[in-house]
Amino acid sequence: MSPLASLTTILTFISVVCAATSWTTTPFNPAAIPLAVRSPYLSAWLAQGAGNALNDVWPTFWTGAIVGWAGFINVDGESYVFLGDPDVPNASFQKAVQKSFEFTSTQSVFVLSAGPVDLTATFLSPVEPSDLANQSFPFSYLALSAASNDGQPHAVQVYTDISAEWVSGDDSLTVNWTTTVGDTITHQVQLEDQTVFGEVNDRIQQGSAFHSTLNSTGTTFQTGQDVVVRAQFIQNGVLANTQDTDFRAVSDDWPVFALAHDLGTISAASDPVIFSIGHVRDPAVEYLIANDATQNRSLFFWSQISTLDDAITTFLQDFPNALARADAFDAQVNADASQISSNYAGLVALSIRQGFGAIEITLSKDASGQFNTSDIMAFLKEISSDGNVNTVDVIFPTWPLLLYTNPAIGKYLLIPLFAYQATGQYPNAWAVHDMGASYPKALGHNDGNDEPMPLEESGNMVIMTLSHFQRTGDNSIITTYFDLLDQWTQFLITDALIPENQISTDDFAGSLANQTNLAIKGIVGIKAMAEIASIVGDTARSSNYSSISASYVPQWQQFATSSDGKHLTLSYGNDSSWGLSYNMFADVLLNTSVFPASVYDMQTAWYETVVNEFGVPLDTRHTYTKSDWQSWTAALVTSTTVRDIFINSVFKYAADEENSQPLGDWYETLNGDVEGFKARPVVGGHLALLALQAVRTQTAMPAV
Ligand SMILES: *[C@@H]1O[C@H](CO)[C@@H](O)[C@H](O)[C@H]1NC(C)=O
Ligand SMILES: *[C@@H]1O[C@H](CO)[C@@H](O)[C@H](O)[C@H]1NC(C)=O
Ligand SMILES: *[C@@H]1O[C@H](CO)[C@@H](O)[C@H](O)[C@H]1NC(C)=O
Ligand SMILES: *[C@@H]1O[C@H](CO)[C@@H](O)[C@H](O)[C@H]1NC(C)=O
Ligand SMILES: *[C@@H]1O[C@H](CO)[C@@H](O)[C@H](O)[C@H]1NC(C)=O
Ligand SMILES: *[C@@H]1O[C@H](CO)[C@@H](O)[C@H](O)[C@H]1NC(C)=O
Ligand SMILES: *[C@@H]1O[C@H](CO)[C@@H](O)[C@H](O)[C@H]1NC(C)=O
Ligand SMILES: *[C@@H]1O[C@H](CO)[C@@H](O)[C@H](O)[C@H]1NC(C)=O
Ligand SMILES: *[C@@H]1O[C@H](CO)[C@@H](O)[C@H](O)[C@H]1NC(C)=O
Ligand SMILES: *[C@@H]1O[C@H](CO)[C@@H](O)[C@H](O)[C@H]1NC(C)=O
Q: What processes does the entry annotate via GO biological process terms (predicted)?
């Protein structure tokens, strides 16, 4: 074979591999598909890559660890697997054939044909940010419906089970379980030996997983060894309504928790049967209050329910309404994002569940043990990078998601940080980096040894505070924490113009003195504090800070512009350096007009000259980039062509079928390879254009 011929062969082979999916995909094939993604501990995905069908691989936790979730459908006595990759030695079944896959902001919908019947599996992870009880309820739906595809009636039964892998990061640990049968059949499984607030391999070693369905005619259940329970259904189409009470390790004869429905004889599409899956723990978060004391906090929904059993039943019964709300939300998001482009709409739809999947909304209890519904705090896990709690520079890139959907949740994420620093236990003059080193322990940093990002976090806190007020008119943070905000602003005033050698949020890129982008954040932050001072009527302070900020701008321009006037530098005086000056988005978002239009035009023109195949590098130190910061930059440039270069680059990476993990925000611009992060909430930053649109037009959040 000539070298050319062998190259042709290779290229042909590659194109076949890339076109591996034999089903239709709408809007595109993401690296991993969200199946049940509601919280840091309810986070099940289908690793998709170049095209895994729903029944090619097991669902995985965001880390990649398997969470057993199997599904079978029996049609006229023939059995087909539709979910997971189970091996059932003594029973014979086929693989259903995937026909289509579609995702929206809240749903992942698969259609598979099981011989003469088409099964539709809808994985709905509700996103209901306007209702804190609903948003904090860590449950997700699976709806199954079947329709004949050959015009003939068929007898159909459907089955799903979960394993105990949903409750532990260590499969050698012992679990126990119970099944309750009433209006609802619920399997509950948990570790026998729990560690409150303890994680193993990013899995909480506390609380329980729940697998439930409404009990109707022909509903059956069973617990027991995986191969035994699955063989029972495959061979009989019903379960035995029996419980295995030999409690044992997760991996010891793999106990599974199964539910089945007899759909009867179907021809047209059947009504869906609904399963729910959840992971609940209580208390959820440990939070440091004054005098080095700790407080236990519970998920918000507990304040609105009588029993968890009832709440699960209500959740299951509410499915038709929940679906209607989800459809309305999806349609609104899609309409808003489609005003930018269809690629943008796809990217946003993929990002929303991932963003909210890192956030939990909590309450404390008062002295009498009653929930204090005035004391709402939200917590965010810095998933995959280091597991910190409420990292300020992770909330900051995520902010557009909250601004667009419900800015109050943004406030609830900031409150724990403000309240902690107001206790005086944090010793540094600047804003703290995070609320705790490892989720869900929000224990502060009384030793002052948090990851030091003084300019980054001080600027972020002031900017987000003003942004929250502008979007909501709620001045409560400003009035309660004015002194802290002013304290951090003093730091900005001394450090923003000539930033000392320090790291920014992009800590993986290393530290640097005189970072142009950090200076931008600080200078906008000072102006934001001027606005904040004006909101509380402190006009003297307001005009003082306004003039300080304004006086920094020409000096900064002098320091930060390359000698040929073509671009901002990465650091002052280094003409060969440049980077994404994404912090200018804060100036646009807040309408503070700190920087002259000429700087925006210069940067816009520059980016167009430095774009690689998968986007514009973060800065000249490396060829990698960030999807969130490119999205922010897309929202600040002055040309739609350049805006679309950024959006289409991020889209190309997200849709390139080269990766198989929940979307990573840090990737290589030369070939689209993931650099290391995954499943982080910062993909909320992909909504920067939506947030800006909403703020500018003062439109309300999407109705749900
Ligand atoms: C499969 O069937 C064989 C023969 O009946 C039996 O010995 C074995 O235990 C069965 N295995 C399972 C996993 O049920
Ligand atoms: C919250 O969920 C309940 C069912 O649990 C439903 O009745 C209610 O409409 C939901 N609220 C919102 C605002 O979505
Ligand atoms: C299972 O273990 C938990 C935690 O130790 C315990 O509270 C519960 O009573 C046990 N349940 C059963 C059914 O043994
Ligand atoms: C479900 O409820 C029916 C009554 O509607 C009851 O006969 C049946 O036993 C229940 N199912 C189970 C598995 O207990
Ligand atoms: C928090 O909850 C844990 C587990 O229930 C308990 O051991 C601990 O004492 C509680 N802490 C506080 C401060 O109430
Ligand atoms: C409830 O929380 C609010 C806000 O933190 C606090 O001001 C109030 O004192 C609390 N109420 C009780 C009864 O603890
Ligand atoms: C930072 O920039 C200023 C202004 O150009 C310069 O005087 C100072 O030497 C620079 N600092 C470092 C560490 O490069
Ligand atoms: C303006 O603010 C700076 C920084 O807080 C302060 O040093 C200065 O005295 C203020 N000027 C006036 C006129 O208040
Ligand atoms: C200037 O920036 C380039 C690109 O980031 C870098 O390689 C170089 O080391 C920098 N020069 C100095 C003097 O810091
Ligand atoms: C932005 O600020 C300018 C004044 O600087 C004002 O004319 C304009 O209305 C503001 N835009 C919005 C959306 O508030």
A: carbohydrate metabolic process
